[in-house]
Amino acid sequence: MKKTSDEILYQEESGYKDLLLRKNMKMRIMETLFFVVGMLLLSQFFNTQTTAFKVLAFAIAIAVVGLAPFVYKYTLRPSYKLTRTHLIVSMGGRETSYPLSEVEPIFEGRHLYKLGGKRHSLMVSRQFLNHLNERLFVYQKLQKRR
């Protein structure tokens, strides 16, 4: 479902900070696996009691956590669009449109929403989340009047 630019109320592409702080569980698991593989490789070449091992382990941790958002940004290219009736999520070249009636905030975290019955982590700024919450409030208010 393509929306014209005049129908879009707010649009945002995920930034580094959003990708670092608001990634989903699948991305967190991938980072953990890369760290474990890096540590296993490192332990093959260095004794775990040496200072070199400890410094390189710390470097691997920083590299995995710090560089992962750049990888996500350039491979997935996440972007979000908010219209009067839909939230459009574009991730990895695939665009999915969710009617606002199927979008519900989950109170476990500010960026977690139920989209189409599934739990999703929206990797967007607080400003976009505020616009989304305002739009959801207005949409629900209009639905109650009908």
Task: Outline the secondary-structure elements.
Layout: E1 8-13, H1 16-21, H2 25-45, H3 51-76, E2 79-83, E3 86-91, E4 94-99, E5 103-105, E6 112-115, E7 118-121, H4 126-145
Mean pLDDT: 89
Contiguous uncertain segments of 5+ residues: none
| Number of distinct helices | 4
Largest sheet composition: 4 strands, antiparallel
Amount of helix: 40-55%
Q: How many E strands?
A: 7
Give the end-to-end Cα distance, rounded to a whole number of Å.
Answer: 25 Å
What is the gyration radius calculated from CA atoms?
A: 19 Å
Sheet/helix structural class: alpha+beta
Strand percentage: 15-25%
Overall geometry comes to elongated
Q: What's the quick description here?
A:
The protein has helices spanning 16-21, 25-45, 51-76, 126-145, and strands at residues 8-13, 79-83, 86-91, 94-99, 103-105, 112-115, 118-121. With 146 residues, the chain is an alpha+beta fold.
What features would you describe in this structure?
By secondary structure, this protein is an alpha+beta fold. It is built from 4 helices and 7 strands, in the order βαααββββββα. It has helices spanning 16-21, 25-45, 51-76, 126-145; strands spanning 8-13, 79-83, 86-91, 94-99, 103-105, 112-115, 118-121. The longest helix has 26 residues, at 51-76. The chain is elongated and about 70 Å long. The two termini are 25 Å apart.
What would the keywords be for this entry?
146 residues; alpha+beta; three-stranded antiparallel sheet; 4 helices; 7 strands; 23% strand
